[in-house]
Amino acid sequence: xxDKKTSKRVLLNIISEYPRKHKRRDPFYVLxxxxxxxxxxxxxxxKASLALFKKFPTAYELSKAExxxxxxxxxxxxxxxxxxxxxxxxxxxxxxxxxxxVPNTLKELLKFKGVGRKTANIVLAVSFGIPAIAVDVxxxxxxxxxGIVKTKKPQETEVALAxxxxxxxxxxxxxxxxxxxxxxCTPKKPACSACMFREVCEYGQRNTxxxxxxxxxxx
Length: 219
Description:
The chain is built from 12 helices and no strands. It is an all-alpha fold and 219 residues long.
């Protein structure tokens, strides 16, 4: 496992080299699109979100939508029946309990069905600029693969990373890790030979030699 100083340097380099620019920061858009993103690719999420928000741009409008119509619009995102019910219900609760505005606390966001810590933290970080570390599959996998943390559960990773990375960088971490995980440190066949962290990465050191790429999936 890497020491804290090295771990911090790696995380800051990932943030610097693989920044993610968010096209929209509207809290309702970010909340719903993140729910849609569960277990699907970014391209599918973008397609579904574009169609959905073109038809129902606000919580008020989505709260009155027919489930079947929402299912049709978000079908590219997969699991569309379950997701349609969830996002319509989320819209209803936002209108009924929060005056049409997405709440800006972790406690309140976690009350929505289908919203876990990852989704809630993304909303807090992206939409409200509130320091939060959103741990998705990329963040959890990469942090453990490199040797920054040794954790079993995403929430354990969140706690561990918070002790390493200064709070001022928390907001940027998830997007940068996602970019790094899609371009270099992929789930299968990561491009270790092209990785700037190969010399310190525990996985890279174990699974590569010379300039060859790793053909193992790793964890």
